[in-house]
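To whoever is on call:

I kicked off a structure prediction for a single chain this morning and the downstream step that reads the tokens threw a length-mismatch warning. I double-checked the sequence; it's 194 residues and nothing unusual in it as far as I can see. Pasting both halves so you can look.
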Amino acid sequence: MRKLLILFFSSLLLNSLVLSQDLVEVAKKEKERRARLKGKKAIVVTNHNLHKFRGREAIIVRSSGTVPGRISRIPPVSPAPRTYQPRKVSSVSVSELDRQEMFWREKKKEYEERWRKAKEYVDLLTLKMNGLWQEFYSLDDMTSRDKIQREISETYQKLLKAKEEEARAKKELENFLIEARKQGALPGWLREKD
């Protein structure tokens, strides 16, 4: 039995040494690759600089119907003209729009704050429940366990009510957003300011 264990552990040790050498080789190759790429420039295309690259050739592919190894280029796609029609504002003045925007933002903030507080209370009660259960299982004295078990029961009832309140606050926020859009609040008014 002892020889079998020695053989098993020696094979594990040998295997780990072989794998670590492979890992060292891979790390060296990666370091060399990065060193080769260090002087080269790369272009990162994001939404912000996408307009600079329109009109250029988009993709280079190998064509299947021509001579092997020959590259054909796909011509750039011209963007379709955009038809944007701004929303017409009736005879409402700019200051009136500002007041409306402030109104909708404040109302949204109230609903979000109510929902945030409800979520925090649920998280707090959940944390308390976990602590009480941990304390319950760590005690050996049955009289102390009874007291903790009552606290667990009370906290559980509070947690259920808090979860209901959180769900209600979230539903109120969702209903408010729907109603605000129906009332004519612009989408930007209901988003967070950057």
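Update from on-call: the warning came from a stale cache, not from the record. Cleared it. Sanity check on the structure: The radius of gyration is 33 Å.
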